[in-house]
Fold these 4 entries.
Entry 1:
Amino acid sequence: MVHKLIDVKSSARQSRLAAALEGLAEKLELPDQYPQDALAEARSAVEHPPSPGNDLTDIDFVTIDPPTSTDLDQAVHLERDGGGYTVRYAIADVPSFVSLGGALDAETRRRGQTLYLPGRRIPLHPEIVSEDAGSLLPGQRRSAYVWTFHLDSTATVLRTELVRAVVSSREKLDYAGVQASLDDGTASASLALLREVGIKRIDAERLRGGASLRIPEQEVEVDDDGVYQLEARAPLPVEEWNAQISLMTGMEAARIMLEGKIGILRTMPTPDEHSSTAFRREAASLGTPWEDGVPYGEFLRSLDVTQPRQLAIMHAATSLFRGAGYTAFDGELPQERIQAAIAAPYAHTTAPLRRLVDRFVLVVCEHLVRGAAVPEGIRQALPLLPELMQASNQVAGNVERAAIDTVEAALLVDRIGETFDAVTLNGASPEQIAAAREKGNTPGGRLQLLDPAVNARFEGTAEAGERVRAELIEADIDQRTVLFRIP
């Protein structure tokens, strides 16, 4: 569902929107140009590309990314191995382009990750690395960290190998195209196995007690005519299957680091009793109780998010996915090791072009696998990474929300006073509504319009999961605010 922000009367609105989005980088104090000394280091690294001794250019790797992506971190290839499978996953060799302690290293630590704004991105690494020499572009010889997973018939990992090697991606694919080829039977044998292995890994996740939030994502895109679009969509099945390969890699990276007693994990605590009790109460009030003995991942998988009340339950489940962070360790194993949504130890390791921590995880794992000492510079950096990544994640979240809020306001700025069909995502209980009225206050919450795909605040006396008619009372592009009223 895509909603264009242009019509015969909207050129002025488009100009205001473009100016507001362009000003976000300054308002949010986002990084600008790379420092010259960091750029000089990047150019020098590109002029002397890495040349690992292993050559795996005979493997038919492909990348699967959004159509416009050029910062390609991962390439994949799958084949049958008797009754099981061999999965190879090549990850961009970013560590070879960044010298520890140098100007480029310092700047990437300051940035933390690539930031995405409509029509532009603020890269973690200079584009000569992230979108050229370090990217796994098709038809190019590239150094990569190549993970090889030997799986049994249930797609359980039996053995893992990790080497630096030269690879050459055969083709840059996108999710929609791969899904279409899988649906019509024209996909390659490797991609057909991606579906087969992905489904089995999802089954294994279910057995572990893992969970995921299936909330339609809001995305802002810019088309070829420079028109901003707001889209709300659920991921394609192939995106989930491909994500399982990344999750498997992160789980194996965590295992390697825990066995080696050095590294950094992505952790998240299990929901506490208070959060679980509150969520159970809300799910029951919305008509779909979370029964005792049912793992929360299994309960979430049972929800039909096309139904308003069950969509509201899925939004409420975000209260169970809190407290994610990074845990560094060296020598003594950490008490907190599990990423609760995955139900296993896990590490970020498959997106080094776009996320700082992955570069360090790759180096740690590669050294541990070949029995070498982890470099001292990496050891010194590990305890600094949790705070750096936490700050970066906060900035990224602010950027994403600000961009969507700005576009939502632009969608609606000329429609104040109109009434829209919507579903309330959260709201006030009858007791809260009564208490607010007694104090002369107006309760409220968040709602999702059925068309356009806007998620916004509302004032009014509605409970979660209701279909409502909501009046638009405020839409301000510059302030990035949208507000509805429910009678």
Entry 2:
Amino acid sequence: MSDGTFDDAFVDDLDRLLRWRRDVRRFSRRPLDPHLLPEIMAAAELSPSVGNSQPWRWVEVRSTPAREAVRDSFIRCNADAMAGFDGERARLYSSLKLAGLDDAPVQLAAFCDRDPDQGHGLGRRTVPATLDYSVVTAVSTLWLAARARGVGVGWVSIIDPDEVAAALDVPASWGLVAYLCIGYPELDADVPELERVGWQSRTAAEQRHFVR
């Protein structure tokens, strides 16, 4: 609504969107409709940031050499992670599909410029990490905007940030926050995949709520 208030139907839809926003690992290779990625990224630009610094820097990874370098980093890091498990946990880990790097039509790296001119240092001098946190809010906003349009997003965390930064030839002041796979999901589900396959179930919210 134009006055900034929202009715109950909108609140219900927002709650439903939050439930259905899942980390997608299995993508269709069908290209996104051309208008979707610009719309989704425009929505991400509405995110809040410390001191209005807008420290996020998006790098769309299209070239084959860059994508292969990221995939190689994932393969190495995934092998290292695999070595940290044994028994049934190792078997379960090996069955997981932990990245959509082979199928997702869009790959997007979200970097944080840790020395931006914009914002004049407001708010980040005491807690510099708020720059990275600001990028995370932009990623979260992008994720919700994508899901609302029927587009899935997967966060690839099993990679070496320095290797990715080198492969994408970004400025030294940029630090990788998220590497995202974006595309149409093979399966829509409101339960996280890691929960569905038995890796880790959700715990009660009360276990994470403290009062002092």
Entry 3:
Amino acid sequence: MELRQAVGSLMVVGLNGAELTGLERAWLSVVRPAGIILFRRNIENALQCRALLDAATTLAAPAALRCVDLEGGSVDRLRDALAPMPSAQAVARAMRKKNKPNLATEHGTLVARAVRSFGFNTTLAPVLDLGLNVSAQVMGSRTAGETPEEVAEYTGAFVAALTAAGVVGCGKHFPGLGGGTLDSHLATPSIERSFRTLWQQDLAPYRSLRNVLPMVMISHAAYPLTGGKSTPTSVSRYWIESVLRKRIGYKGLVFSDDLEMGGILNAMSMEEAAVESIRAGMDLIEICHSPELILRAFEALLHEGERSRAFRTLLLARATHTQRLRSKIIPKSKSKNAQQPEALAARIRAFAAKIEALQPAEDSAA
């Protein structure tokens, strides 16, 4: 594998609009990324979305990830083009209060069908963060429970449903944002929880699901009590290699949160973030919007690989490893029998109505 090819195959990138522009075709041909991620700005309907993904991934690396954020609730990139999906919190509460464990499976199945119907093969869900009071304003309805057991029960069934339907899931945000008070889109959360607390609580869902999660997303939070440093996790070899890979034993793809976020760029430049995240053990770096920043990251990795023999060796090895894992987890054939959007939208609305009716009385009253 050539160095330029290796660098691009470690990147997942975003696009600006609903159609691929000439400029985007040009830089995609240069970068040849490992995947494409789309947002509401890119999605009008299923036919248009599939065409955009087909055009973009033709210029990407083999076994390209076609990513979307579809958790349900506040993070649902298909809500305008399809139907609003219930949140993880609402489904998990109904599941627990009414003793209906199959609801998490139904939720995951509907998310997978929505993802496939628009041409995606990957959803960056579920959230494994604990729903603690301190982070309630930041996390909202994205969390499935307050305890590790509640989170693992919902997310385990959700991920199993995604996998059964041929969709790649991604557990996030390692090692856990439940103790944070800041939004990492804007700033670096400093989470002062001891390693013992993190291991017993925040990391417990990752430990229980380590063999079933195809991907894990790394957050930009810092944990000063774990070694006295305030380094964002996304550039921390300690968290990625020592804790996630070695101590927990995770063997899947390790995926960064968006490197355009303030949680990392307030601490360092895009060039530093790209190089240091790969050096720390990241498999895939995600840059969701700016072509300038995408190309700056690409050139920084390429330059460092040309300058340093050790980093070049790392890039080539990481690219080979990452491509092998992508080929393993991505379904071999495209979904030609995806459910029609109109029928799927009706099913989602019916499921949402059922979840609303099953909400505990105190939640409904509030």
Entry 4:
Amino acid sequence: MLRTSWRSYIHSFGAYSFAANGTSSSDFDVMAESVGNRLFFAGEHTSRKYRGTVHGAYLSGVREANKISNL
């Protein structure tokens, strides 16, 4: 078993994305946009359907890996 210290990590403290008032689903799509086919973003904060979840983070990694492999 591998256990992380994510909840005590100084830069996150177990944080995940939070859709505040005024946030739209398209905001999560914007966070997922690549930059010039050279810089790609993955993480639960880039998943419109599964934001704030572990499987959203995983699926976003698969999505970006597919983008890269199709270059």
